[in-house]
Design brief:
Layout lengths: L1 E5 L4 H12 L3 E6 L2 H9 L3 E4 L5 H4 L8 E4 L10 H21 L4 E5 L11 E4 L12 H15 L5 E7 L1 E3 L7 H8 L5 E2 L5 E2 L1 E3 H11 L7 E5 L5 E2 H11 L8 E2 L1 H4 L2 H11 L10 H8 L2 E3 L2 H7 L7 H11 L4
Parallel strand pairs: 1-2, 1-4, 2-3, 4-5, 5-7, 6-15, 7-12, 8-11, 9-14
Antiparallel strand pairs: 10-13
Helix pairs in contact: 1-7, 4-5
């Protein structure tokens, strides 16, 4: 099949493109830089220069594509709403419209569990759970509005929305800040890390995307997880150890920390500070918000089963560590 990928230079995108080209698919990928061109070409993809800010300039590249996988989005803890609105909400809707115009058969949108997170526990829920009025991050808010806008669109292109949880694996950089805090002795658990949390290895997300290329209902929404229940301490502690770090013991009660996060956010906005605040609801809920998602729908509609288990992913991380 002919597949167009946005976000192809990222952690998930590179794994996806490598898998697709190995299977013989013709992959075209959006590229913003010369370095990205080289990286994508080395994976077997054809780079198309452009960005989510100038979609009309390169949208002709969608012509004759069978599938568009939209995996590009800023995953930032902090920032300006106009940036999230443009890069996630407006870009996703514009891209889907062009996919419809160019008769792309299927649009696979990589959303996020963040669309449902507003500090209330998310235990034993499925995709029918209503959206919160206001997610706890601008990223989650933009992803939520993007989902709603796409679902309300009447275009002919089949729309599949995947909601991966925290994507992890060897080479993933989103944990760098947390790991650096551990190295400096600045990381503290909340309620001893006992909150259930969800996670998904990058290879399992790739598997879900592959399945969604041929299966899934139009406008279907699907959670994607490792399907290996664990607490924040069990999972993040294992990741810390895989990176050669000793998990800390320090912990603070949620009742003490949670009221502080919105106050710190308000202070940062009031002072118009450009740096990332040391505490935010998004950061706090990553380790303290109880969440466990049902996978009945993705199993039924896509035939999803995880292809990479937790111990395998951790072994890969340990093997990728530079020798001391």
């Amino acid at each position: 099949m002919r597949i167009f990928v946005t976000g192809g230079s990222g952690f998930l995108g590179q794994r996806l493109i490598r898998r697709l080209t190995e299977e013989g698919h013709q992959v075209t990928a959006l590229s913003r830089t010369t370095d990205s061109d080289t990286r994508l070409a080395s994976l077997g993809a054809t780079p198309v220069r452009g960005s989510l800010s100038d979609i009309p300039r390169w949208e002709k590249a969608l012509d004759r594509q069978d599938i568009l996988v939209h995996a590009a989005a800023p995953i930032d803890v902090w920032g300006r709403w106009r940036t999230f609105r443009h890069d996630i909400l407006e870009a996703s809707l514009q891209l889907y419209q062009f996919a419809c115009d160019r008769r792309v058969k299927r649009f696979i949108y990589l959303s996020s569990e963040s669309v449902l997170q507003d500090s209330r526990p998310l235990l034993d829920i499925d995709e029918s759970t209503p959206y919160p009025l206001e997610p706890n991050s601008l990223y989650g808010k933009a992803k939520k509005l993007a989902e709603q806008s796409l679902l309300s669109h009447a275009g002919p292109t089949t729309l599949i929305i995947l909601r991966p949880t925290f994507i992890w694996g060897a080479g993933e950089s989103q944990l760098d800040t947390l790991l650096e805090k551990v190295r400096k002795g600045q990381f503290v658990w909340v309620d001893h890390g006992h909150a259930p949390m969800e996670h998904v290895h990058v290879d399992n997300v790739v598997e879900a995307i592959r399945l969604a290329m041929n299966r899934g209902l139009h406008k279907g929404i699907y959670f994607v997880t490792d399907d290996q229940p664990s607490t924040a301490r069990e999972f993040l502690g294992a990741l810390m150890e895989a990176h050669g770090l000793t998990p800390p013991e320090a912990s603070l009660p949620a009742a003490l920390v949670k009221p502080l996060a919105p106050l710190v956010e308000s202070l940062w906005r009031l002072l118009a500070l450009q740096s990332t605040p040391p505490l935010s609801r998004f950061q706090l809920d990553f380790i303290a918000l109880p969440r466990r998602y049902r996978l009945d729908r993705i199993r039924r509609d896509l035939g999803y089963q995880p292809v990479r288990r937790l111990d395998e992913g951790l072994a890969e991380i340990r093997a990728s560590r530079p020798l001391a």
